[in-house]
Amino acid sequence: MAIRKSSKLVWIVAVVASLVLAACSSFPSQMIKAPDKFGEFVQAENSFLIDIYDLSPTDLGEGESLRVVATTNIVADVVANIGGDAIELIGLIPLGADPHTYEPTPGDYQTMINVHVIFLNGVGLEEFMYQTLKQVAVDVPIVSLSEGIELSLFGGGRDEGEDHEHDEGETHYQVQGGVDPHVWFDAFNVIVWAENAAHVLGALDPANADLYETNAHEYVEKLKELDAWIQVQVARVAPEDRMLVTDHLAFSYFGRRYGFEMVGAVIPAYSMAAQPSAQEIAKLVDTIRELGAKAIFVGTTANPRLAERVAEDTGVELVPLYIGSLSEPDGPAGTYLALMQYDVNEIVQALLK
């Protein structure tokens, strides 16, 4: 199989588009630090990613199926819907584990070097896996399902004492510069995932390409139905109440698509690996009181200690959400579709109180 590392020009297009939008925004300082962080993950991921259009068919033996690894269980669920019974799929990161900080085990390495392709979320989500992925990429193609998605970039925030108006989906406060990897919180981004997965699987296994395309088409219809359902549900919340306070910055795509403003985060960064300062926590408490935010939304994979303290200090409700991991299969968020339905229901109910 010929493997050529991609220049990932799509990321360059995305950042240029984002910078143009920032220049027109009433919140221009948000973009100051983002290109630096953007460049860091582009350089790191380009060292092991292959462009999805640079794949060649795999030489499969009679009766042999494509062996596929997906990093997160959310990625695995989407790929499973596309590959179906035609692939042998292994999800790497266990249920309930934080994909931001998961480090591969020796067993994970052995699994990855014995498959035909590895799917990841990309956009910096699997940062703690980079060293292992670089080693594996010598023999196994690694692709990002997020290739082609318009990324959400933030940095800078507002200066203390300044009064800015905000567009929906933007942050209200000072944040650490970075790229939001939580692309799955916009159902239309997962349509990109589905189409990318079908293309990759079909390129590697042309005999089943039609099956993958058919499965993708059926799954895309479900994603469109999900998106329409979300629009109806969030319309129940008055625009002035569509404020999100979260454990970390995970909802910029959700806010941009569905009309919510991120007004605060316990950890003002896109990864739970970061640590807030005492001053940042104090500012968050002030923001919640000032704006009358109704809840703090916390991921099930996160340590809730700091969020619990903020909720106690402000008297707001602490609402668990599934963010970086699905639940057990028989739980409330056993699939990506169920995760989105559960989270939207919890967000809407909390903000209607």
What's this entry about, in short?
With 353 residues, this protein is an alpha/beta fold. The chain has helices at residues 9-24, 34-46, 73-83, 106-112, 130-136, 187-204, 209-234, 252-258, 278-291, 305-314, 336-352; strands at residues 66-70, 87-91, 117-120, 142-144, 152-154, 178-180, 243-248, 261-267, 295-299, 317-321.
Describe the 3D structure.
About 50% of the residues are buried. The N terminus is likely disordered. The chain contains 11 helices and 10 strands. It folds into 2 domains: about 190 residues, Nitrogenase molybdenum iron protein domain (Rossmann fold, 3-Layer(aba) Sandwich); about 130 residues, 3-Layer(aba) Sandwich (Rossmann fold). α3 crosses α6 and α6 runs antiparallel to α7. It has about 350 residues and is α/β, with parallel strands linked by helices.
What best-fitting shape do the alpha-carbon axes yield? globular
Terminal residue distance: 57 Å
Order of helices and strands: HHEHEHEHEEEHHEHEHEHEH
Count of discrete domains: 2
The CATH C-level class name of the largest domain: Alpha Beta
Approximate helicity band: 40-55%
- What structural class do you assign from the helix and strand content? alpha/beta
Fill in the CATH topology of the largest domain.
Answer: Rossmann fold
Strand content: 5-15%
Largest sheet, described in full? 4 strands, parallel
| Strands, count | 10
The CATH superfamily of the largest domain is identified as Nitrogenase molybdenum iron protein domain
Task: List the strand order in the largest sheet.
Answer: 2-1-3-4
Q: Which regions have little confidence, pLDDT < 50, spanning 5+ residues?
A: 1-36, 155-176
Structural Rg: 20 Å
CATH architecture of the largest domain: 3-Layer(aba) Sandwich
How large is the count of helical segments? 11
- What does the average pLDDT come to? 84
